[in-house]
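Take a sample.
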Amino acid sequence: MTPAEMEPRIVRYGDLMPCKTAFIDAHTPGSDQKENFTIIGGGVSESPDQHVHIAIPHGFNIGAAGQPPKCRNSLHSHRTAEVFFVLSGRWRFFWGRWGTAGEVVLEEGDIINIPTGIFRGFENIGTDYGMIMAILGGDDAGGGVIWAPQVIEDAADHGLVLGENGKLYDSKKGQSLPDGIAPMPVLSEEELKAYPEMTPMEVVGMGVRRYNDMMALGQHAPCKVIGETGIIRDKPGFEVDLITRGSARPEMHEHDRPSVLMPMRGHWRVTWEGGATTLAPGDTMSVPENLPHSAVPSMTGEASLYHIVATDDPAGPTWQG
């Protein structure tokens, strides 16, 4: 594969195309400055304005959220796994029906595997624009987002209505629900009982791992972060490894399905049969299946890279069941 053929499978951080109208809370004060990015796969955006960088199915989706300080993403749930790692900034993740069941603060490089079936949100509590990278299970990411009732109600007060077809309609632009399309129904109190209030011990203990700990574990071999034998023992339909300078190998290898490389720290030289390129933090590269390749740091200093590949496990509810 030539470098020109590979280029459409590389998304540079500086080329990311944001959408500011991706979700129902796009006009809600406190959430109206979010930028959402769909890097690989269709994602879960509710807006036709969302740009998809790489549409090739991988068995999972890759996205990102960029937010200025004090901007939050409203409470929602997914039917498949949702994993985040912090690329930049300082972030507070919270969960529960009202976002009060628990919270945890993540720093750069930290990762969180959020259980399916609970409401979750996140907020940039740093002092500058921050970015978190997201992995969603499945090619269709579980069919969209399930919003806490108050999010839908607040959005209606600011002109946005979500149709039962999963599309947004903005009264500020003169839009209204088409004939035959009803509003997305709000979850009833009985339906809400299916969304547990998990404790901090459950969410943090089973689903959060710190960057420095993973770096220490990955000094001589890649740190299996998420997987059947990972330090987060889960099978969400994909595996995540953290590769460090000490565990990177120059020998070529290949996978029987597409894999994704996402540098966290340092510059990485990726070589494949036919070409080579250098990736920087925030870049995302999709390596085709059955293509021999290698990735090694290209400069001195700290170096780490997240590696994601799909598995044959179903992408539905995982350790939360």
